[in-house]
Design a protein that fits this description.
The structure is a single chain. This protein has two domains: 129 residues, Cobalamin-binding domain (Rossmann fold, 3-Layer(aba) Sandwich), CATH 3.40.50; 115 residues, Immunoglobulin-like (Sandwich), CATH 2.60.40. It is built from five helices and 14 strands. The strands form three sheets. A five-stranded parallel beta sheet has the order 2-1-3-4-5. Strand 6 and strand 7 form a beta hairpin. It is globular and about 55 Å long. The mean pLDDT is 95.
């Protein structure tokens, strides 16, 4: 099977898109892609999830002006799409950034994009190299996935990667515009239609370095094959999650999305 590359062009520039497609195809990759549409409310970014999640998709290229990479709404959409790609392929999934008109500091990007590589020239060569390289195995203590369902909302899935969790919680940062409003427990990978929640908790407030998160949680014990699902209104600026924090030293994970 020919390896494919997914290409995101942040501005509608058909000439640039054609050039990037031709360059990646020249080096043996099968290019597909889209022009970015900046509309978080309608979850437009979710349209790329099926293509990025395909088994033959081996690298993601994001091409655009440095100013676009700095725009908060674009960063949020790209971060959420990166979460979906990493849930499908692993956290070492290659993401290449090709900014023009300025520089992009990877360490200042949202958490899901901090493993990306900035490529200033030779994008096709680098893309095929990353597509054919054996990805390192990055082991995390948690699983995190996103399920964008237009009309049904933005759901996040969290759970243990290895050791079971005694309960689970997820909080969102973003004020009243981005708060949990539904939750459930079920098998990993599929939002449950019905579930039994043990001692559910809503409206927990958590302070994260001066930013407030609103969290929901449950006391159901989760195995690595089970997940906690939370729907969040709006577009959160960040997430905090982990086993239910019954103890002061409970393990907590944070992910920035802006």
């Amino acid at each position: 099977m020919k390896k494919s590359v997914w290409i995101t062009i942040l501005e509608k520039n058909e000439g640039l898109g054609r050039m990037v497609f031709e360059e990646t195809a020249k080096y043996g990759l099968n290019p597909s892609g889209h022009f970015w549409e900046d509309d978080l409310a309608k979850l437009v970014w979710a349209g790329a999830v099926p293509e990025l999640a395909k088994d033959d998709c081996k690298v993601w290229l994001i091409v655009g002006q440095a100013a676009s990479f700095a725009q908060p709404s674009i960063r949020q959409g790209l971060a959420l799409l990166a979460l979906a790609a990493q849930a499908a392929h692993g956290h070492a999934f290659p993401i290449l950034l090709s900014p023009s008109g300025g520089k992009v500091a990877v360490e200042e990007l949202p958490t899901p994009l901090r493993g990306a590589e900035v490529v200033q020239s030779g994008l096709g060569v680098r893309a095929v190299a990353r597509a054919n390289a054996k990805a390192p195995e990055l082991t995390l203590d948690y699983r995190l996935a996103v399920h964008p369902l237009p009309g049904l909302g933005l759901w996040f899935e969290v759970g243990p990667a290895r050791d079971p969790w005694k309960g689970a919680f997820l909080g969102s940062i973003g004020g009243e515009a981005a708060v949990p409003d539904a939750h459930g427990v079920g098998l990993a990978g599929t939002i449950p239609q019905n579930s039994t929640l043990n001692y559910p908790v809503r409206g927990m407030k958590m302070d994260l370095g001066g930013k407030e998160a609103t969290a929901w949680g449950v006391h159901n014990e989760l195995s690595p094959a089970e997940s906690y699902y939370v729907r969040v209104t709006g577009s959160p600026q960040g997430l905090v999650f982990g086993p239910f924090p019954d103890q002061d030293d409970a393990e907590v994970f944070t992910v920035t999305l802006v």
